[in-house]
């Protein structure tokens, strides 16, 4: 099972003076259980791509299949129900008087029993790291990180098979950012939820993704495993992207004259290289 895009193109405001092609000839397959990171500078087509996958807009041309169901077919609702999408700053979509009511809003529309709804609320809160004493709180009285978790929990309560996250940690403090990203990774590892992460953070892309896709000018510039992608400095520059901070730091040390490896793409890997370098130098 997978998400598949075949020769997909999307044009905004077609046949008007403001016509703009946002995506060109996209061919992409996202396998079940993947952790795919999609990155690229503003205007590269990332947001349009995820809106197409979620069925929020229709392609100008081409075909989008969710587990072999065409999003243009009569069965599209069953396909769309497998997709959960968390937009940037999802806390702006919170509206109920308590966290529990907000998270349960989606499941209620599925005509589930009260017991099943409460079960999903508890499970979703646990998955994002929200304590049970937050249930009766107003979401508007919580911290930014807690609001973000509550918004993500509302999507998870629908039990999507494929979860799309558009810059899920934008604007958060470092502690909240780490908590949310670690919980997303835990969700992927323990529940086998397919993650499609839109992010400008090369550190998060390097640490969490199993595959990286770089977009530029409405096209897929390159794709591959994180270590492979971050070895292509020229391609990253062409896309307006930088290296992960760990790799940049080691490259700076090497440029200063230290005979040190620059293979690391995560902070943990960089620490290991520095520790080894220290032992060999002593």
Q: Please outline the major beta sheet.
A: 6 strands, mixed
State which percent range the strand residues make up.
15-25%
Question: Termini separation (Å)?
Answer: 53 Å
Biggest β-sheet: strands ordered side by side in the sheet: 6-7-8-3-9-10
Q: How many strands appear in the DSSP assignment?
A: 10
- The SS-based structural class is alpha/beta
Instruction: Based on Cα principal axes, name the global outline.
Output: globular
Radius of gyration: 21 Å
Helix count, DSSP H or I runs of 4 or more residues: 11
Question: What string gives the helices and strands in order?
Answer: EEEHEEHEHHHEHEHEEHHHH
Unreliable segments of 5+ consecutive residues: none
Mean pLDDT value: 92
Helicity level, as a percent range? Answer: 25-40%
Structural summary, described in words:
This protein is about 40% helix and about 20% strand. The chain has 11 helices and 10 strands. Helix 4 crosses helix 5 (about 145-155). The mean pLDDT is about 90.
